[in-house]
Amino acid sequence: MSAPTLPGAEELLAALDEDQRAVASQLTGPVCVLAGAGTGKTRAVTYRIAHGVVTGVYNPTTVLAVTFTARAAGEMRTRLRELGVSGVQARTFHAAALRQLSYFWPAAIGGGIPRIVEHKAPLIAEAAGRLGVAVDRIAIRDLAAEVEWAKVSMVTAEDYVAAAAGAGRSGAAGQDLTTVARLLSVYEDAKTERHVIDFEDVLLLMVGILAERGDIAAEVRKQYRHFIVDEFQDVSPLQHRLLELWLGDRTELCVVGDVSQTIYSFTGASPRYLTEFSRRHPDATVVRLVRDYRSTPQVVSLANNVLARAGRARSSAAVELRAQRPSGPAVAFETYDDDESEARAVAARIGELVRGGVKASEIAVLYRTNAQAEAFEQALSQAGVGYLVRGGERFFSRKEVRDAVVLLRGAARSQGETPMPELVRDVLTSVGWAPEAPAARGAVRERWESLNSLVGLADELAASRGADMPDFVAELGERAAAQHAPTVEGATLASLHAAKGLEWDAVFLVGVSEGLLPISLAEGDDAVEEERRLLYVGITRAREHLQLSYARSRNTGGRATRKRSRFLDGIWPSEEVGGRRHGRHSDSRAGRREALTAAVTEQDADPDLVERLRRWRAEVAERIDKPAFTILHDTTLIAIAAAQPRELRHLAILRGIGPTKLEAYGPQILAVVRGEDPVGNQSEESS
């Protein structure tokens, strides 16, 4: 497989919009990029690196790009490779620090690096036992989270009580600050006795080495000269200190972030490093990315509206998104009697979308707490819709995937003349893959979905890169290290926190009620505003279809005591349509139009007329060389076929028919409705 050729500087910059070009053109730091959701920040940053390499400003081996997740790092490496750039290090803070710690440990400390414990739970339980503190599984989890907060905030056991009180923390798992401070101390003792370290220690130890050993700090700074840090709003004090030591007295730093997506403050992350960047670096170049290429105007409008209602609590560093995609379906707002009804209705709607051509892997159900997932798992199973729960067993840890990778490695050593996708199919057939999905659901279907995603990845790499079998196996190894799983065909169930950084064609935000969003545990204005940002993150995951819903009662027949989230006050529609409570998000100009057609489905429309309208749309799209959906959306065609308007004024009140569409296509649409040839009714604009 031949490596892609690095484009020229002019070609690189020409592929970007004006704001992205400003990022890619500013090759020396400090640079602060305030990037809204869906605005192409990864594209801007990778093109900036490629631009620096092609112009000779950067040696790729001296660039370190730091991301929030291993998956994001893997995606950045893939994009750079596709641009013809190799040698750039793209890693998480932990991965970069561990690489350095492993290299410098023998010289700085001596001996072998201690084993890193993957889970704190056993050590937390032991520490609690030594103190005589009774704990269960949930208490251990909460205490572990508090230990992590203290360590990423660089708070020692001796300083914990004062620091935690100052941060408004009240302890954890029902234990007061003094008890938690004692547990911190005993936890560190237990680690020392066992000669182990935890993940936070990787950063702490590297910070200590760089601060105390000038020779090692000089060596690291000689290696890395240009730094890019993504998701800068989520940087912790410990990560920021490590970054400062990497930089030394240099300012070759580009940071990228969005204060409106600050949702990890409870872990010790702080947006102040982003919001105060210009104060720390008075000569910094600040670029705002505001053009949203991900979501429809309807989704973008709702996202902006939710943030705008934060009032004075909204940061001046927040960006207001500007939608770049064509108009899409209205955002739906649904109220249900109980949780079970909500889950059943959402599952049914997902089934409709899948039958309508939306891939199940492009649909997500997002919720505030993981406890909400069970009802939707059950409803989707009953509806015959495949699903996967994000945050469950890791893809590359599944037995069928591990077995498949072993066999694929063997096949890579003796590929012969068989095309890679065909060879992958042959290998996977031996471990249970078949061209057709099994009729059975549950574990059998999940195993098939896992193997089928490997087949899909093989096809994709062969088509896009001309990859052979060794290339495919190497890609699997890199993805396994980054936990970058291939797409599994099933609807995604995920918490709002787990959804950050992802996107889908259709998103269902469920349980948007007081007590869940904001969650009842959110105390104080800052905590509540973080919940608002969590809703914003959920909204901006949707490309086209978006539905928000909640249930008035938890149980069937229960008291209807729940109220919708305060974040949607003034936004949630109250129209009664079709004899049931139903709403569509709209601006004031389109509100009447959307209310009139909100409940229309394809069953309400004349099927022959729908088909005629679709044929007309396809002909127009081909004639003007534009995608069909930019002419009129399917929902608009269905509304037309249901209403069967005979005059332009009747057509004008339907959702999706604005003044421009009416002028361009109105006479043609009416001709189609009458059963006439629309060609003779073309307006000048549509010809």
TrEMBL record:
Q: Which reaction does it catalyse?
A: Couples ATP hydrolysis with the unwinding of duplex DNA by translocating in the 3'-5' direction; ATP + H2O = ADP + phosphate + H(+)
- Enzyme Commission code(s) on record: 5.6.2.4
Spell out the SUPFAM superfamilies in the cross-references: HRDC-like, P-loop containing nucleoside triphosphate hydrolases
Q: Is the keyword ATP-binding assigned to this protein?
A: yes
Q: Which SMART domains match?
A: HRDC (SM00341)
What InterPro entries does this protein's entry cite? DExx_box_DNA_helicase_dom_sf (IPR013986), DNA_helicase_UvrD-like_C (IPR014017), DNA_helicase_UvrD/REP (IPR000212), HRDC-like_sf (IPR010997), HRDC_dom (IPR002121), HRDC_dom_sf (IPR044876), P-loop_NTPase (IPR027417), UvrD-like_ATP-bd (IPR014016)
Q: Where is the UvrD-like helicase ATP-binding domain?
A: 14-296
Record-listed ATP binding positions: A35, G36, A37, G38, T39, G40, K41, T42
Keyword Isomerase among UniProt keywords: yes
Q: Which residues form the UvrD-like helicase C-terminal domain?
A: 297-544
User: What are the HRDC domain coordinates in residue numbering?
Assistant: 603-683
One example of the protein's molecular function in GO is:
helicase activity
Q: Which domain of life is it from?
A: Bacteria
Write out the entry's keywords from A to Z.
ATP-binding, Helicase, Hydrolase, Isomerase, Nucleotide-binding
Q: Which family is it part of?
A: Belongs to the helicase family. UvrD subfamily.
Can you say what this protein is called? DNA 3'-5' helicase
